[in-house]
Hints:
Layout (H helix, E strand, L loop, with lengths): L1 E6 L4 H12 L3 E6 L9 H13 L5 E6 L3 H8 L6 E3 L3 H11 L3 E5 L5 H13 L6 H19 L1
Parallel strand pairs: 1-2, 1-3, 3-5, 4-5
Helix pairs in contact: 2-3, 4-5
Amino acid sequence: MRISVSSDMDEPVARLLVAELRQRGHAVRAHGALRPGADAQWAVCSEAAARDVVEGLAEQAVVCCWTGTGASIAANKVPGVRAALCTDATTADGARRWNDANVLALSLRLTSEPVLREILDAWFAGEPSEDPEDVRNVARVGRLDAARNDS
């Protein structure tokens, strides 16, 4: 799978994230502090990774900043992105299952090596729910994006 990764800081967990994704067989497209010479502001690099998803350059993205909040906010401003800030595996599983999240947001401050691996395990094992209520909710979010584009 092609995955875009952004981080506003060159932190050990961000480097571990890239290495772990590659070890799992994913092609990584780096943004921000993970790509020499790129703009590392959290809003800029998170938007770039999110745009890769909606433009088809990546199937999913992982965006990182110190708390994960700014990265998730910036990514969610890109129509078609459903970014979820996940600090544990249970949240990552639910984000994929109930929200069909296509962008994972992580905190560089809170995410330890073992927790990162657990989150990634849950994220990649998760499949979008086929429950009609969940499908309707994800479709509604899509309509909110479309309405935002029309205004």
